[in-house]
Design a protein that fits this description.
The protein is 40% helix and 16% strand. It is α/β, with parallel strands linked by helices.
């Protein structure tokens, strides 16, 4: 088990104004979404051109950008995943946050250079699930919100990543 002591301050950036505030107030990383495929429908979100600008702004300040693709897509939505991933790849984001196995598989196939993080939307509540996501290529899993500190400790103790 590898223990990391560095805490990452990760801030939501639902639009360019909120991105600017996250940068100004010291975020180490931000998460944001394009207009489709993100769970935060109420956020303004970014179009492809804005995403490129956002990544450039953040990277100039050594801030990482994670793009959410954490919906559970329908058949119609999943038909557009290759185009979506192409936009994200071209923007040079640091990671993609996913919740769906099909999206995870598509990301590995069409955007293998992008690190994969598993969203809290995936509902990971045990170490076996965490380990399986790591085996499938995830670099980070975000555990379910309802876990106790003891649950989190047990998962951490029983994961290899």
């Amino acid at each position: 088990m590898m223990i990391k002591n560095k805490i990452e301050l990760l801030a939501p950036a639902g639009d360019m104004e909120r991105l600017d505030y996250a940068i100004l107030y010291g975020a180490d990383a931000v998460y944001l979404s394009l207009k489709d495929f993100g769970m935060r429908a109420g956020a303004g979100n970014f179009d492809p051109d804005e995403l490129k600008i956002a990544v450039k702004k953040a990277h100039e300040k050594n801030i990482k950008v994670y793009v959410t693709c954490n919906i559970l897509p329908t058949n119609k939505q999943i038909d557009n995943i290759k185009e979506y991933l192409s936009i994200i790849s071209e923007s040079k984001v640091d990671a993609l946050i996913v919740a769906d196995m099909g999206v995870l598989a598509a990301a590995k196939k069409f955007s293998p250079e992008i690190e994969i993080h598993i969203s809290t939307q995936a509902g990971i509540v045990n170490y076996m699930s965490a380990n399986e996501f790591y085996k499938l290529g995830a670099k980070r899993v975000v555990l379910a919100r309802e876990l106790s500190l003891d649950d989190i400790k047990t998962i951490r103790e029983k994961t290899d990543e």
